[in-house]
Amino acid sequence: MMLFADNPDQGRQGADKSRIVSIPFFPEIDLTDFREVMRVDANISDNRTYHAALEAVAHVNGQLKAHRLQAVADGIATLAQTAAPDDIINGESVQVHHYRRAAYCYAKALLLEKYADTEPTGKAEARGEIKQAQAEDYRREAHFAVAAIAGRHRCDSELI
After folding, report:
1. pTM listed for this prediction
2. CA end-to-end distance (rounded Å), the chain
3. Are 49 and 111 in contact (CB under 8 A)?
4. Could you give the C-alpha distances from 126 to 2, 114, 117, 120, 133, in angstroms and in order?
5. Rounded to whole angstroms, how far apart are CA atoms 18 and 99?
6. pLDDT band at residue 6 using 50, 70 and 90 as cut-offs
7. Residues ≥6 apart with Cβ < 8 Å to 51
8. Do 109 and 142 meet the contact criterion of CB atoms below 8 Å apart?
């Protein structure tokens, strides 16, 4: 059986759970945009999407706490202002793009991990492993985005 989306609001986040707003330093996250950009299935509820994104934003904010505190101490009020004046894409700070990417990728990883085992067929185990691998890819992308914001290298390694 095939289903077609005849509702223009399908895939749109409900109004009461449509965005994540944290402290004024960080930009807000639009969950309708998140659903579209990260191809979040309409079968995943607004509530589940909201809570995954909330956890992702909290995680990214925590990773960037030292960066934020230093910026505020330097008199910088928002993440967008931490970028060089010529680091603008489509009228928006590159730092904001990186922040959004980090939050989106962490949220998508959380959703993939949570719903890796919800297949109605016998192929659930194989699909679950694929989704876990995808979640790892998204976590790596998020790590790269956070590193770009903080001005760190993408990879840290030590010789023992």
Report:
1. 0.82
2. 57
3. yes
4. 23, 15, 10, 13, 11
5. 18
6. very low
7. none
8. yes
- Whether residue 34 contacts residue 49, with contact meaning beta carbons closer than 8 Å, is answered with yes
Amino acid at site 50:
Y
User: Cα dist. 130→53, 59, 90 in Å?
Assistant: 21, 24, 34
Tokens of 149: 């914001």
pLDDT (tens digit per residue) in 63-108: 999 999 999 999 999 999 999 989 999 999 999 999 999 999 999 9
Query: How far is residue 127's CA from residue 144's CA, in Å, rounded to a whole number?
Result: 26
**95: which residues sit within 8 A by CB, 6+ positions away?**
79, 80, 82, 83, 87, 149
Q: What is residue 152's DSSP assignment? A: -
CA distance 4 to 155: 43
